[in-house]
Amino acid sequence: MNAMKTGESSTTKGFLDRFFNLSVKGTNVRTEVFAGLTMFIASVYILAVVPNLLAVSGMPLESTVAAVILTTAFSTILIGLVGNVPVVVAPGLGLSAFFAYTICGAMGLSWQTALGAVFISGVIFVILTVTRVLNKVIDSIPPVLKISIGVGIGLFVAFIGFKNANIIVSNPATFVGLGNLQDPAVLLTLAGLVITSVLLAKEVKGGLLIGMVITTILAMALGIAKVPQSMNDIFNLVPPIPVDTFGQFDVMSAFAYGIVSIIFSITIVDMFDNIGTLIGVTRKANLVDEDGKFPGLNRALLCTSIGAAAGAVVGTSTVTSYIESAAGVADGGRTGLTAVVTGLLYVVSLFFAPLFLLVPAQATAPVLIIVGVFMMSEVTHIDFTDFTEALPAFLTILLMPLTFSIAQGISFGFVSYTLIKLATGRIKEIHPIMYVLTVAFIIHFALG
Q1: What residues form DSSP beta bridges with 168?
Q2: Closest CA to 90 of 126, 51, 116
Q3: Each residue of 271-299: pLDDT tens digit?
Q4: Distance of alpha carbon 180 from its chain centroid, rounded?
Q5: Cβ neighbours around 447 below 10 Å, total
Q6: Distance between CA atoms of residues 407 and 427, nearest Å
Q7: N or C, which end of the chain is more exposed by having fewer CB within 10 Å?
Q8: Is the dihedral of CA 160, 207, 46, 215 positive or negative?
Q9: Alpha helix stretches (DSSP H) within 56-170
């Protein structure tokens, strides 16, 4: 019997190895599973944040929670199986806020009409991917900006970690400032950062995940995180279903309103959020070739575009690749198996959502900060002695955390790169598509 079980296990591992090219990419099933767990825990906070954002638009909360979980699970498993890349795909925070506060709030549109606009944007994204227009866009991006995007994402991730833990807080005089270092929650985050850093320094496998678990237990012991008191704090006997949001997207109303600017904004922000995250994550995972290109990028982008359209059908805002994917990569994830594990855990979270929501910000913040450290290493490949390279790199890197947006940081980098190369007569270094992108970003700024 034991021999039979061992044989079945070996067969399963062999299939997974062949399907995801684990050996070729220098990884194994155990590492990918650990990385998937890490990526899930690092991103599971969206279950508490995104549904509450969308509920501001009038969407029913229980159905929205289910829609967010199902969309995330579907999109993440899809990108794992088809794109073979360790990335979590879920409704974007910035785009969810844009959905709720701008489209449904300031503009006064119904959430059904807003979902219609999201669906149209998703379809446009699919078309741009299938026709390989996005590939041409990515190929036109100069190496300095590709490197800067990854570094900028690292700073952005770290800033989110510091912010979530209240180590960095808002300050009316200086915009941001140091938080209260006497606050037990802040001290716990710093302790978690030390614990996780030591584990990584000692090259403990799954160090990020172990650090999060230890910090969560400490948070419960100190009364900072909630200790489960009953099964209701751990388990949903009947998982929520998006009955009130499924199929409610109103495409005709979106067209009738003439919201071209909204669809343009959703599409361009989602497109460059995805491109930026995928470039940064794949570079850090060493999945790019000698020319700095990720061979499976078109398949990955197709998965995110299909996820965007599917999310509108189920009842969520536009999906995007999440920068927390870098946490899984930092823990050894190199293939789509990491994403599949994460996606399956989101399916499970339909039943165990209360349990996963017990993980406090103090446990996830150290991971995000450490990810920033890992991604910062790419900055050494930027030639800061050439000012026409240094300026766009600097703006891309700095403005991602300062504007709290990957797409905005990218837009400043692109526009500055084109303008300074033009002004200095180095026109041959500008790909023709960069002119188109620069104009598109200027239009984006003009539309607000």
Answers
A1: 178
A2: 51
A3: 777 777 787 788 878 887 776 678 888 89
A4: 29
A5: 12
A6: 25
A7: N
A8: negative
A9: 61-78, 93-97, 111-130, 133-140, 143-164
The pLDDT score that the predictor gives to residue 47 is: 82
3 state DSSP class of 319: strand
Amino acid in position 58: G
The pair of structure tokens assigned to 285 is 């995972």
- DSSP-derived secondary structure for 235-287: --SS----TTTTT---HHHHHHHT-HHHHHHHHHHHHHHHHHHHHHHHHHTT-
d(CA 420, CA 433): 16
CB 39 within 8 A of CB 88: yes
Could you tell me if residue 179 is left (phi over 0), alpha (psi between -120 and 50 degrees) or otherwise beta? beta
pLDDT for 46 beyond 70: yes
**Residue 4: predicted pLDDT:** 45
Question: What is the C-alpha separation between 28 and 440, in angstroms, rounded?
Answer: 42
What is the residue type of 66? A
Q: CA-CA distance, 13 to 57, in Å (whole number)?
A: 46
Q: Quote the CA–CA distance of 434 and 418 in Å, as a whole number.
A: 7
Which of 16-25, 35-44, 197-206 comes out lowest in average pLDDT? 197-206
Instruction: Retrieve residue 355's tokens.
Output: 């349990």
Per-residue pLDDT tens over the stretch 291-350: 667 888 889 889 999 999 999 999 998 898 887 888 889 888 999 999 999 999 999 988
C-alpha radius of gyration, the chain, whole number: 22
Give the whole-angstrom CA distance, residue 236 versus residue 192. 29
Nearest CA-CA partner of 134 in 249, 295, 275: 275
pTM (two decimals)? 0.75
Rounded-to-integer distance, Cα 204 and Cα 332, Å:
11
